[in-house]
Amino acid sequence: MASPTRQFRRLSIGGTMAATRGRGQRHSHEESPSSSDDSEPIENSSEENESGDVYEEESAESSTLQARSGITYDLAGLDSDSEAKAVVGLTGRFDVVQCVSSHGGYDFLLSDHPRVHIGSDQHLCTCSSFQHQPDTACQHIFWLVDQLHGCLPILPAENVPMSSDGRSPEFQRIEQLLDNNIETVADHLDCQYCRGEADGGMSRAQKARDIVSAFETLTLPEDFRLDLVDSIEQPRTPEQCVVQGDLQATMLRLAMHDDNVYTSLCKAMPSGATAAIYFDKALENCRKVLTDFDRYCRTGQPPADGTAVDLDHVIHTLQQNIIRIRDNIAARAPNGIEGATKALVTLLEDISNRNKDALDGNRWGAVSFQGEDEDQRNLYHQLIGKEDESEEFPLLDALELFSGAELHPYAPRLRALLQKNEVFPAPRPFIIRLSAVVRAAESGATGTGQKRPAGNGSGGNSKRTR
């Protein structure tokens, strides 16, 4: 039998291929061939494989190979082991589940569980092949670097020399090219891009908590299992992640410490889904607080589940949830835009509809809760209508993060809210800022919001390479 590298050359890399039904394109292979004895002589110029295809062997072996990206590489500088991995990677097919910015580069989660880090110092992979030979690129690194170059608007050179670490001296370093093109690259790879902790996004621990808490009806990640304090910096084996009798704790730890479990959960519950769930739950929590408070003010009966309905708690909860929505818009960008805008506009409507003494018309004869005046019992006044020096309006802070195009579906509702708040009247700084939001929504401008990092949360590109 021929060596692995010679077996690949018998596929006529960079040359031609003949099949039993005429000539065609070279076949790509997703797995490297197994090692075998080199001593067996080659008797014929062609060989039949298991499927019946016959491959011609060129008399002068070529070292060039055209990868799936369309770039042609020169593998002459690689040793036999690196060449075998390069051929498998450059002609293979993998799926990227998620791309996350990380310290010094980007992490790409593949559907078959490896995590490839493209960094300024080194390209790394969690697969066993790379772990056994960390100085040599594995098939995943060869494949990903080629796909990334193929995504970028740079004319590839012919016969690009390939190094054993997966880099090429003829190309600019890929991690530098990604910085300004990462959303475009993620779109071409048909995967979701998420900003990492270094860019103001979510950490691995936060993402794990986000995914596991998504299966809860109302509990937000910030409030989910606060008893489960664990650090990703303290490694655990899968066995050490098991908490007897507690599936939630076990899954949370596995998501934090086991790459296979984490990648599978990210695929089953992608960032777009968790973002939509988050903003839906945040809105539902606020509306439940308002409904419980309205019922208590009207009847004097507190909620059966024991939820606090005193005025200070209600105001604090609403403010806290609005701030959480605002902060999560940036942390989850570019995901969750539709859910976040819906939540904010709905909350602004709900609060604007409560510009009154909360105890007006109550059935139990209450005139105050604890001796406060009617302005203090007015939720609208407490959350929006107070004139103070700070002029802080978390609702507007959050709405200003969106572009006019993202707000455009809510333009009629925002215009109605502006007119209502002008009649009240709301504080002048609030009216000025809300007017700007309404103008942006009605114009439908496609530019990004004032503070949110640019992202591409919708649409797609038909040109997707794998």
TrEMBL record:
<feature type="compositionally biased region" description="Acidic residues">
    <location>
        <begin position="37"/>
        <end position="60"/>
    </location>
</feature>
<feature type="region of interest" description="Disordered">
    <location>
        <begin position="443"/>
        <end position="466"/>
    </location>
</feature>
<feature type="region of interest" description="Disordered">
    <location>
        <begin position="1"/>
        <end position="66"/>
    </location>
</feature>
<dbReference type="InterPro" id="IPR007527">
    <property type="entry name" value="Znf_SWIM"/>
</dbReference>
<protein>
    <recommendedName>
        <fullName>SWIM-type domain-containing protein</fullName>
    </recommendedName>
</protein>
<keyword id="KW-0863">Zinc-finger</keyword>
<keyword id="KW-0862">Zinc</keyword>
<dbReference type="GO" id="GO:0008270">
    <property type="term" value="F:zinc ion binding"/>
</dbReference>
<feature type="domain" description="SWIM-type">
    <location>
        <begin position="114"/>
        <end position="149"/>
    </location>
</feature>
<keyword id="KW-0479">Metal-binding</keyword>
